[in-house]
Automatic annotation (TrEMBL):
<dbReference type="InterPro" id="IPR005225">
    <property type="entry name" value="Small_GTP-bd"/>
</dbReference>
<dbReference type="Pfam" id="PF01926">
    <property type="entry name" value="MMR_HSR1"/>
</dbReference>
<dbReference type="GO" id="GO:0003924">
    <property type="term" value="F:GTPase activity"/>
</dbReference>
<dbReference type="GO" id="GO:0005525">
    <property type="term" value="F:GTP binding"/>
</dbReference>
<feature type="binding site">
    <location>
        <position position="247"/>
    </location>
    <ligand>
        <name>Mg(2+)</name>
    </ligand>
</feature>
<keyword id="KW-0630">Potassium</keyword>
<keyword id="KW-0547">Nucleotide-binding</keyword>
<feature type="binding site">
    <location>
        <position position="246"/>
    </location>
    <ligand>
        <name>K(+)</name>
    </ligand>
</feature>
<dbReference type="Pfam" id="PF10396">
    <property type="entry name" value="TrmE_N"/>
</dbReference>
<keyword id="KW-0963">Cytoplasm</keyword>
<keyword id="KW-0819">tRNA processing</keyword>
<feature type="binding site">
    <location>
        <position position="20"/>
    </location>
    <ligand>
        <name>(6S)-5-formyl-5,6,7,8-tetrahydrofolate</name>
    </ligand>
</feature>
<dbReference type="InterPro" id="IPR031168">
    <property type="entry name" value="G_TrmE"/>
</dbReference>
<keyword id="KW-0479">Metal-binding</keyword>
<dbReference type="GO" id="GO:0046872">
    <property type="term" value="F:metal ion binding"/>
</dbReference>
<protein>
    <recommendedName>
        <fullName>tRNA modification GTPase MnmE</fullName>
        <ecNumber>3.6.-.-</ecNumber>
    </recommendedName>
</protein>
<dbReference type="InterPro" id="IPR018948">
    <property type="entry name" value="GTP-bd_TrmE_N"/>
</dbReference>
C-alpha cells in the first residue's frame, strides 16, 4: 500500500492548514522536519520544515504509530501556518519523497480495510460531516460508535435462530419438524419484519434530519417567488424584478423555523420558453421540486389564473404542497382555484399564517424522527428493502420448504454482511468512498 497525503483542512488562507500523511513511509517526512525522528518526536514541539534546503515554516507535527491511528497505519499530521502557498511547496517535496495524493475518502477506506471500523461506521463519518441538523449529528455520532452495527447484529441473530432450526432439520430429514420448531422459525420472521419495517419507516425522517427539511418555491414567472424567499430569509438573497424569468438557476439557503433547519429553494419561473439557459433552469427546477419535502406553489392573485399556472398546479399534483396566492395587496383577479393561504409578500399580510402552516408540517416531520434510533443511509436502505422482501415472502408461506428457506435465509445473511462490510466488493467501496471529501 502506498503512502498517501492530503490537506485535512481547507486549503485557503487561514490560521492553520493541517495535512495528514498515512502509510508505511509516512515517517520519511521527518527528513524535512529539522530534528524530528520517530523516537523523540513531541506533539507540542515546533519543528522547522525544510523544502529544497530552505526553511519555509515552523510547524507542529504529531506522529501516530501503527496501528494506533485513524487509518491503522503510521500517520503523521503536520500543522502549517495557514498559507496555501507554503503547503503547496511542502507538497512538492512530498511528491519527491514518493507520497501520492489521497483519493476522496481514502484515509477512512484504509481505516475500514485495517479493521478500525466497519462500513456503517465509515459511512457515518461522511454523515457526521455533512449533517445539517444537530439531531443528524447526534445520530451520525451514535452510528460512528456502532449503533447500526449493533442493530445488524440483532437482526443477524434473528436470522440465525431461524436458520439453526432449518439446518438441523436438513441434517436429520427423517424426523418431521415439530410444530414448536416451525413456530420458532415464523416467530423470528415476524420479529424480523417488525424490526426491518421500523428501520425503513424512519428513513425519510432521518434524511430530513440529515439534510434539513427542504421547501421549494415554485410557480410561473413573476409571481413573487424570489420576493418570498427574501422575506423568509430576512435578507436580499435572490434578485427580484418585474421582468418575468429573472431567476434562472435555483438558489438554496437555510433558515430556522421553530427550531428546525429548513432549506429553502427559490426556483426559476416555470413556463415554455425558447431561451436555452432559461430552459436549462426550468429542467433543474423540476428536479428540485420532486426532491422537496414541501412545495409552495405560488400564484399571482392580481391576475386571472392562466395556462402557465394550471401547468404548475398539474405538475405538482401528488406532491406535498401548499397553494399560496400572492399579491393580496392588489385587487384580487384570480378565480377558480383552491388555495391554502393568501398572502402579500409586499406588505406582509398573511405571512404569519403561512409560516404557521409550514411550521406545523415541518414539526410533524420532526416528530417522526424518533421511530428508530439508527440512521439509515441510502445504500443501507437498498439492502434492507431486499431483506424485508425476502422475510415477507417466507413468512407468507404456509409450509416450510427447507431448501428454499435455507437458501433465502443465507442470502439475507450475506446481504447483512455487505452492509457492515464483513464481505465487500471493490464496487461497494468505490460507491461509498467516492462521495467523501478529500482528506477524510
Ligand atoms: N487532527 C485530527 N483531528 C481529528 C481527527 C484526526 O484524524 N486528526 N479525526 C479523524 O479524522 C477525528 C478523531 N478521530 C480519531 C480516531 C482515532 C484515532 C486513533 O486511533 N488514535 C490513536 C492514538 C494513539 C496514541 O495516543 O498515540 C488511538 O487512540 O489508538 C485518532 C483520531 C476528529 N479530529
Ligand atoms: N404588489 C405586489 N407585488 C409583489 C409582491 N411580491 C412580489 N411582487 C413583485 O412582483 C415582481 C416579481 O417578483 P419576483 O420575486 O422577482 O418574482 P419571481 O416569481 O421570483 O419571478 P421569476 O424569477 O421571474 O420567476 C417584482 O416586481 C416584485 O416586486 C406582492 O406581494 N405584491
Ligand atoms: Mg425569481
Amino acid at each position: 500500500m502506498n503512502t498517501i497525503y492530503a490537506a485535512i483542512s481547507p486549503l485557503i488562507s487561514s490560521a492553520i492548514i493541517a495535512v495528514r500523511i498515512s502509510g508505511d513511509k509516512a515517517v520519511d517526512v521527518f527528513k524535512l522536519l529539522n530534528g524530528a525522528d520517530t523516537e523523540s518526536i513531541q506533539p507540542r514541539h515546533v519543528y522547522n520544515l525544510k523544502y529544497q534546503g530552505r526553511v519555509t515554516d515552523d510547524v507542529l507535527a504529531v506522529f501516530f504509530k501503527a496501528p494506533n491511528s485513524y487509518t491503522g497505519e503510521d500517520v503523521v499530521e503536520i500543522s502549517f501556518h495557514g498559507n496555501p502557498l507554503i503547503v503547496a511547496e511542502a507538497f512538492k517535496d512530498f511528491e519527491e519523497i514518493g507520497f501520492v495524493t489521497a483519493e476522496p475518502g481514502e484515509f477512512t477506506k484504509r481505516a475500514f480495510l485495517n479493521g478500525k471500523m466497519d462500513l456503517t461506521q465509515a459511512e457515518s463519518v461522511a454523515e457526521l460531516i455533512s449533517s445539517k441538523t444537530l439531531q443528524g449529528i447526534d445520530y451520525s455520532y451514535q452510528q460512528l460508535k456502532g449503533s447500526m452495527r449493533k442493530e445488524i447484529e440483532y437482526i443477524k441473530d434473528l436470522f440465525i435462530n431461524a436458520l439453526t432450526i432449518i439446518e438441523a432439520h436438513i441434517d436429520f430429514p427423517e424426523e418431521d419438524i415439530e410444530d414448536a420448531h416451525a413456530r420458532i422459525v415464523f416467530e423470528n420472521l415476524e420479529l424480523l419484519k417488525a424490526e426491518l419495517k421500523g428501520i425503513l419507516s424512519s428513513y425519510d425522517s432521518h434524511r430530513i434530519m440529515r439534510d434539513g427539511y427542504r421547501i421549494a418555491i415554485a410557480g410561473k414567472p413573476n409571481t413573487g417567488k424570489s420576493s418570498l424567499m427574501n422575506y423568509l430569509l430576512k435578507e436580499d438573497r435572490a434578485i427580484v424584478s418585474d421582468v418575468a424569468g429573472t431567476t434562472r438557476d435555483y438558489i438554496e439557503s437555510s433558515f430556522v423555523l421553530n427550531g428546525i433547519p429548513v432549506s429553502l429553494v427559490d426556483t426559476a419561473g416555470l413556463r415554455t420558453t425558447s431561451d436555452a439557459v432559461e430552459q436549462a433552469g426550468i429542467i433543474r427546477t423540476g428536479e428540485v421540486i420532486r426532491d422537496a419535502d414541501l412545495v409552495l406553489v405560488l400564484l399571482d392573485g392580481s391576475e386571472p389564473l392562466d395556462d402557465e399556472d394550471r401547468a404548475v398546479l398539474e405538475s405538482t399534483i401528488g406532491l406535498k404542497r401548499l397553494v399560496v396566492v400572492n399579491k393580496s395587496d392588489c385587487p384580487v383577479q384570480i378565480q377558480g382555484v383552491e388555495y391554502d393561504c393568501m398572502v402579500s409578500v409586499k406588505d406582509g399580510n398573511g405571512m404569519p399564517e403561512l409560516l404557521n402552516i409550514c411550521a406545523g408540517l415541518v414539526s410533524v416531520a420532526d416528530a417522526d424522527r424518533f421511530g428508530k434510533a439508527v440512521m439509515v443511509t441510502a445504500r443501507q436502505r437498498g439492502y434492507f428493502v431486499r431483506i424485508l422482501d425476502t422475510v415477507e415472502r417466507l413468512s407468507g408461506e404456509t409450509e416450510i420448504n427447507f431448501d428454499i428457506f435455507e437458501y433465502e435465509l443465507n442470502s439475507s445473511l450475506r446481504l447483512l454482511s455487505e452492509i457492515t462490510g464483513l464481505s465487500y466488493t471493490e464496487d461497494i467501496l468505490t460507491n461509498i468512498f467516492n462521495n467523501f471529501c478529500i482528506g477524510k
